[in-house]
Amino acid sequence: YAMLLSLIFLIVLVAAVVGFVFRHEIKTNFEANLSLALRDYNVTADRHSEAVDTIQRTLRCCGVQNYSDWERTEYFRQRGIPQSCCKSQDDCSEEDLKDLSKAKLKVFVDGCFFLVTSTMESRMSIVAGISFGIACFQLVGIILACCLSQYITNNQYEMV
Questions:
Q1: Using CA of residue 122, residue 126, residue 127, residue 129, what is the dihedral sign?
Q2: Using one digit for the tens of pLDDT, what is the confidence trace for 50-99?
Q3: What span, in angstroms and rounded, lies between the C-alpha atoms of 70 and 146?
Q4: Which domains does the chain have, with CATH numbers?
Q5: Alpha-carbon span 28 to 139, nearest angstrom
Q6: What is this structure's pTM?
């Protein structure tokens, strides 16, 4: 049991170190995938399109860097900027969303990439604290399992 807990502890430790070391690559990869999701937005109405809509509604953002990123997509040529970018759903018409100058007044202008990464970075201290707490419990479990193993091998543990 102590060996299993030690293995899990080491895997979590290695994952944390790798995540910290490669955080810039993770950001770059996220930005590329978000751009790809925008490019393929609503072509097949898949889960990537739903994820983009959820991010834009929740964080009140639009596009990768800003709302004008939608101009380079096939979806924009057909329907304009998506409704998920609108500040108010009642005040967004399809004609307004097809014109970038009109849309600027009706949609969120900030890009989602900066907001997502800043939100993740602001929550990293909470994640680190929780991870540290779990690691402490694992270490206590490892120590207690080793103590129990030592008692058993010394025949100090009574079988009932």
A1: positive
A2: 888 999 999 999 999 998 889 888 888 888 888 889 988 888 888 888 88
A3: 58
A4: 12-122 (1.10.1450.10)
A5: 35
A6: 0.68
The residue behind tokens 């860097």 is 65
**DSSP secondary structure string for all residues of the chain:** -HHHHHHHHHHHHHHHHHHHHTHHHHHHHHHHHHHHHHHTTTSS--HHHHHHHHHHHHHT--SSSBGGGGGGSHHHHHH-S-GGGBS-GGG--HHHHHSHHHHHHHB--B-HHHHHHHHHHHHHHHHHHHHHHHHHHHHHHHHHHHHHHHHHHTT-SPP-
Q: 108, 67 in Cβ contact below 8 A?
A: yes
